[in-house]
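Morning. Coffee machine broken again, so started the prediction first thing and wrote up yesterday's gels while waiting. Chain of 312 residues, entered below exactly as on the submission form.
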Amino acid sequence: MYKVLISDAMSNVADQIFNDKGIEVDVITGLSEQELINIIPEYDGLLVRSATTVTADILAAATKLKAIARAGAGVDNIDCAKARENGVVVMNTPGGNTNATAEHAFALIMAALRKIPFADETTHKGEWQKKAIKGVELSKKTLGIVGFGNIGARLSHLVSGFDVNVLVCSKSLESRQAEFPHVTNVSFDELLAQSDIISFHGKAAADGKPLVNKEHLAKMKSSAIIINAARGNMVDESDLNDALNEGLIAGAAIDVFSTEPAKENVLFNNPKAILTPHLGASTAEASIVVAEMAANQVADVLQNNVEIHVVN
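Came back before lunch.
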């Protein structure tokens, strides 16, 4: 009988799928790297979200492992090259959390424009800061989307009812432009200069360097805001903090960080920054979808030698 480990918290629909297919499953979360190294030789499959980092040492110990499924899109926490060397297929679940992440990005946009966190905090304190809080409307603004995969495309549709001008910076859009007549593909510099809101939805750079630093931030409107619900190293956090303090841009709403979990960060306590703890995919609906997809993917590899959404 095949045996699978679920090492991160996810919907129990995954457990049920394995049980129904006659695959033994253990759910053990919060494992240290060494603890995972100690037990991984028992398993043929592994399901993770973002908390587990699958290192080269873990993969070296995984002598039976055939498949890893990431219940989500990003696989930054998995050493995909080492997995490939060891004959382990790595899969993700694209589309499973598309709407959830796009909606969170939209929520961050509205929260930043209307200063909702500050309004909430001060109202709870009985301060009634109505005259001091003046928001900005989304209507007729220019939204720049960097990266135009499933999430970026979904966000472009979510804002369509607000009469928003949508600019996109994406190499892949050129071949798909006919599918998205409501957006305009521009250069990165054009997007930086023209956008009132810039939302990141692309992949991190292969070399790990931030896509945006102080030089880029200086090209933006002083009234602009940055939204990042993609990857923590898309925007240099120290440069972003400086840009907010110096008034180069008006605000930022950040869901992802260079180091997670973020116990400390240069952006903490900056009044111009709205921060959330990587909640983009954290909806009841998305958690079920990605767990179901990941479980079926691993089961298909083990039982049918069928590989779906391979990333390595």
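Residues 257 and 264 are 10 Å apart (CA to CA). Going to sketch it on the whiteboard this afternoon.
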